[in-house]
Design brief:
This protein has 202 residues and is an alpha+beta fold. The protein contains seven helices and twelve strands. The strands form three sheets. Strands 9-12-1-10-11 form a five-stranded mixed sheet. Strands 2-8-7-4-5 form a five-stranded mixed sheet. A two-stranded antiparallel ribbon has the order 3-6. A hairpin with a 2-residue loop joins strand 10 and strand 11. The chain is globular and about 55 Å long.
Amino acid sequence: MKDLSEIEFHLSINTTRGICSLLFQSGVQLKVKAGVSINNLLCKQLSLDKTYVDKSISIIFMNGQPVDDIDKVIIKNNDTLALSGAMPGLIGATLRRGSHLAPFRDTITFKEYRNDITQDYGLIHLKLFNFISQEVGPLLLQRGVMVDLEDVIDLFDDKMSEKINGHLDIYLDGKKAGLNELRVILKSGVKQKLIHLKVKIS
């Protein structure tokens, strides 16, 4: 089995957005400082504009439960955070942060407003949906994300072939490689369960 800690690929912004729609729906893992509010995570650590967070990220789920107050909900190691733009219909309106329909989902709303969690670095699972994946995903890929090995294999197989149209530079731990070489390495087995995936937008 081979050591393979990082894959960097160079793509156009449009192709990167296409990859994001595939990658972030399944979710990636990010190394972050846990024990802080969701608002702190998004605005301070991920450097998202506060106005964008307030106006565009309308629906937030923590461990499968909708969140209203991102200043009070504290994220901890191994939590799963899902971000989405507005969704249509009654369900979308009910799930929206601060919605006047929020009382109808009171039994499933996230209420664990903990403030006793020690701040320390850990991994969280992040999912992005609809246009949020297109707008936030490329920013995160340029920083680098951790992806499950099986998801990397899936991404660089048929799904990747449909998106790149032959225009792709790949670097395996800093050394340039071809797509077929990467596929062989991934399918022959690597030691890591998580692969650091990074994009350089060209």
